[in-house]
Design a protein that fits this description.
single chain; alpha+beta; 2 domains; three-stranded antiparallel beta sheet; 22 helices
């Protein structure tokens, strides 16, 4: 076959110098835009559902606010304990089985600062809605047995709810009987504190303990899981970012088993940054959907090995659990009961990464999206598919936003329970964030100066041997009678709650109304929903009208702010959103964020 080589070479040269056609220069053509819009529609729904999970932090903005709250709470803990007082942290939907009592031991202000960071991290990732009482003691001896640590003690609402069981009989274990404690209370007015501590210490009796089995605990009341569940799940659900190190010792009374997780924090940060870069490139390729990209990175990380870690924020959870210890089993006579957790201080430099990573994540994703948004060219919707997907997305987004408004009304119509009767025990709702409890006020109270709460305050203040005080104080704090008494004291003497039936109606003196309207951030929530609806209307008008190019990126930024702030209110507001409100709003916002028919120029 004869070839015209000159003509062939000329054609090749022409193809090499031929500029890219307009259809090729815009990566997403009109036909592809309609197809991608269908994919974006369902993708936004799936990401919106995952991003409305109430148990996790779903975006970098919320993560940053949580980190700021951790730092604020840590400073508060240090200031309160330095004054010799206690601190109560409790949510309205707290657990019904226990109070988690945290006893902080320190020898210097630097020790206290580091341990306060650890406790604040634990509360943020595990116990934000729990009831947590923080007490402390500055160690007296030069070589303390417990130096710079926080010990998490479970104080159950009822003896049957104890997490520590005897290895031999399976019965609930409490080192001090209530009769012994009552005798110690009767000694407060007549005996010295040293004699009281010695008496209680001599009557402490600790059997070899193990964690309670799930089948041994009542299951007819809803409650948040204990720290024991988070630690034991590390072993069952393996993750590449954490390894549980278990130490087993044989004692004269039984087996002692302790787990101390080791976190691969640097590895997780590398994965987090890598995924952020990848998501940023996806934003650059699409030129739209800023809210989708910002809300989609956490679900992506969950599928890469962080789902089994637990906690509300993966990085904070890894930092909190690192080098802590959990007692699966304890030997007889040990100061540590099974189920107790010991956390140690956190240095400042690793602590700062919980602020840096969310900011870096937002910067990478926003930079990638902004590059694509500035390169994007508008494509007018045409045909049944083009116009149909635009109007379908807009109508679904607006309808779900309207449904979210009705969820606010439902949230405000509820009651705030003050008393709860659950199975064989009752509880008093406290529902305060970072409430300082003056110790001197307890000791001078006419009602509670001869109570188990006053006994605990007195024991922690003594100058006696640290070993004796540690065992005695923790044994008092673990009694069910203690948590009932401290809740009652806070509700009646400090907060001065007033009730109508089992619901709280006012607080303080003079009384101020307490209603969901005063606690739930309904104004900010309503503003977020209204902003989403406004932006949804803009997306439709923008598709058909010749608006300036800056309207699209500004609208996308507003939608992203709306989504992230709504999620932040879920964790920082007084009451969480209703589940249906959260899902409807998040799906609506992400759908409307993806309704832009654009192609990105010069991508290749």
């Amino acid at each position: 076959m004869n070839y015209d080589w000159r003509r062939l070479c000329g054609m090749l040269a022409f193809l090499l110098i031929l500029p890219v056609t307009n259809a090729q220069n815009i990566v997403v053509s009109s036909t592809a835009a309609w197809s991608s819009q269908i994919i974006a529609f369902w993708g936004a729904i799936l990401i919106g559902i995952r991003a409305s999970d109430r148990t996790i932090v779903t975006n970098a903005c919320t993560s940053f606010f949580c980190a700021a709250r951790v730092a604020r709470r840590a400073r508060r803990i240090k200031a309160v304990l330095t004054r010799g007082n206690w601190l109560m942290h409790s949510g309205w939907e707290n657990g019904s089985k226990r109070i988690d009592v945290v006893v902080i031991y320190w020898t210097s202000p630097a020790d206290l600062r580091r341990v306060a960071r650890s406790v604040s991290l634990y509360i943020e990732v595990f116990a934000d809605q729990w009831e947590v009482l923080i007490v402390g003691r500055k160690m007296r001896t030069s070589a303390p047995p417990i130096d710079g640590c926080a010990r998490w003690i479970q104080s159950p609402r009822h003896e049957s709810l104890s997490g520590a069981r005897s290895q031999t009989s399976g019965a609930s274990v409490f080192p001090l009987s209530i009769d012994t404690i009552n005798h110690g209370i009767s000694m407060l007015k007549a005996e010295s504190l040293s004699d009281i501590v010695r008496f209680l210490y001599d009557h402490c009796s600790i059997d070899a303990t193990r964690c309670a089995y799930k089948s041994e605990l009542p299951t007819d009341d809803g409650t948040h899981p204990s720290l024991a569940l988070h630690y034991t799940s590390i072993v069952v659900n393996q993750t590449p970012f954490m390894s549980p190190l278990t130490t087993i010792r044989q004692t004269g009374f039984g087996v002692e088993r302790v787990a101390s997780p080791k976190s691969a924090i640097a590895m997780f940060i590398l994965v987090h940054i890598t995924v952020s870069v990848a998501v940023g490139l996806m934003g650059a390729a699409s030129g739209r959907g800023l809210a989708v990209w910002l809300m989609g990175i956490r679900p992506a990380l969950l599928s890469l090995g962080s789902e089994n870690i637990g906690g509300t924020e993966t990085l904070m959870t890894l930092l909190a659990l690192d080098k802590s210890s959990f007692n699966y089993m304890s030997g007889g006579g040990s100061v540590d009961l099974a189920g107790q957790v010991t956390g140690y201080g956190k240095p400042l430099l690793p602590f700062l990464i919980i602020f840096v990573i969310p900011l870096l994540e937002m910067a990478l994703i926003t930079a990638g999206w902004l590059y694509g948004a500035l390169q994007a060219r508008k494509l007018a919707p045409t045909g049944v598919v083009g116009n149909g997907m635009l109007w379908l997305s807009a109508l679904v987004g607006l309808a779900l936003s309207a449904r979210a408004f009705s969820g606010i009304k439902q949230r405000l119509s509820g009651r705030l329970l003050g008393y709860k009767q659950i199975a064989n025990h009752s509880m008093t709702t406290v529902a305060v964030r970072d409430l300082e409890i003056p110790s001197d006020r307890i000791l001078s109270s006419t009602t509670y100066s001869n109570s188990i709460v006053a006994l605990a305050v007195s024991v922690l203040r003594t100058d006696d041997d640290d070993n004796m005080v540690t065992l005695t104080a923790e044994s008092i704090l673990a009694r069910p009678e203690f948590n009932a008494s401290i809740d009652e004291y806070i509700a009646k003497d400090i907060l001065k709650y007033q009730y109508r039936g089992d619901a709280i109606i006012s607080r303080g003196d003079p009384p101020k109304p307490v209603t969901p309207r005063n606690i739930y951030p309904w104004i900010q929530t309503s503003f977020c929903i209204a902003l989403t609806m406004f932006c949804g209307c803009v997306t439709v008008v923008y598709a058909y009208c010749n608006f300036p190019k800056w309207v699209k990126p500004v609208t996308e930024v507003l939608l992203a702010i709306s989504a992230m702030w709504f999620s932040t209110l879920e964790r920082t507001g007084g009451l969480p959103h209703n589940r249906d409100t959260y899902v409807c709003f998040m799906v609506a916002t992400l759908i409307l964020s993806s309704v832009w028919y654009v192609g990105v120029e010069s991508l290749g």
